[in-house]
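Hello again, I could really use a second opinion on something today. My current little project is about how a certain protein chain folds up. You're getting the sequence in one-letter code plus the fold written as tokens. Here's the protein in full, and shout if anything looks odd to you:
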Amino acid sequence: MVRGARQAAAAIQEFKPDVALVTGGYVAAPVAWASWRARPRVPLLIFLPDLTPGQAIKLTSRLAAEVAVSFPEVSHYFPGKAVVTGYPVRAELLAADRAVARKAFGLQDELPTLLVFGGSHGSKSINRALVSALPELLDQCQVIHISGQADWPWIADHFARGRGLTMMQHRERYHPFPYLNEEMVQALVAADLVVARAGASVLGEFPAVGLPSILVPYPHAGKHQEANAAYLAQRGAALMIVDEELPARLASTVLNLLRSPDRLATMSQAAAVLARPDAAGNIVRELRRLANPRMRPESRMYPQGTM
């Protein structure tokens, strides 16, 4: 921390910023401290993507001029400093075309599409539960599966051998990938339902495309992922399954939703209502205002659900 604060102070002295933006994690603390200690002091804006702040955010928020949060329910953690900007997402996500996305993956129009992934590194428990459920799932839907690099070798080997009679019958419905980068936008837009962990990005990306979800909070992530999943579930946009129940409940939960298009549509609408498509622009406006206090925007009440 001490070394990081010195390095941040040197960078600030050289660059002479008008404003500083940091997000969560302990690596933000030295930058926040150096910004506050700089002379002249550098106004600090913190962005909190999650629904609950970690220790680093709680501490550094005392040094911040403002804390940008994704949802109004988080504001009470930062009295007098919170600004509800929304969760910023890639512009490509808001502009993507569903028909083009489905064509890119070679999906069949008559079948619903399930997207399954476990975060940037993948999830062994989600991967194993999906592989076990695939014969039942592929009888009713098509699956885009992003396994993560760590599990890819055994998944690729498993299906190269063509194990499972039902799997062989519907092999063309299964679309496995170790990782997707730019193509992830198309995967989100193409899907009718997603099974995923509940990292902070689900609060922004799933509402941005009105995507219903089954969320499986990572059990070793403190309470952050639980809180994220509960927020979407309580608002009708998601269902939540605890990690240890996933093998027994995955197939039945997915199929019950896919067989209920009206319920899926309701969940999609509930997710879309939570979106703030201009969240990135909102954060930029706050940064510009802090850099130049004479700027007074007409309104800082940023609208929700304006897709």
About this structure: The chain has 14 helices and ten strands.
